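Human
Can I borrow your eye for a moment on a structure tokenisation matter? Give me a protein, with the fold worked out from its sequence. Write it directly below this note and I will take it from there.

Assistant
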Amino acid sequence: MSSKPSPGRPDRAALGAIAGLALLAAGGAALAAGEGFDRAVRGLGRECVNAASTACARSAFQLADTNSDGRADLAELSTLNDRLRVWTRANGKSVPPADLKALNLGFVLVDSIGLQNWIALYDTDGDSALTFTEATADLQLDERPVPELVRTRELVDWQSLRQRFGAMSYIFDYLGIR
């Protein structure tokens, strides 16, 4: 499969960047082994507000990787996506508006791209699954908590993302994502 973009369409890497950000931002910790789903989602939210963004992302990925093999495959990501949607519908009224907006934007992006395509977009080693490094390729994680990186617009490498999207980068402006 060619990685060259079709005229008027973003390339595979750009679509993967958006879908990856959507899933990670949407609460990848939803599948905590041995914990209730609600507790896992809310626990990750608290961690991401207070801990280093690197720790937040690592926790989200580890909890999405339900078999602890260091990879998130289609089955794991599909289960996460389904359960997170159910949780969001049941708990939406108690979720801060900005977080609810991020969750819903994530669902739209995942639906538009498809989880299997998202994996293919970021799967640099060809194993049909994502490692932590692959899943966070377009995030600039450091010791600051996620809200600080979001507030200062430093969580995403926007220049790289816009370059990948090419002519389609207007979608970020249209959706109010900068």
Residues 22 and 106 are 4 Å apart (CA to CA). Residues 12-174 form one domain. The radius of gyration is 15 Å. The chain has ten helices and two strands.
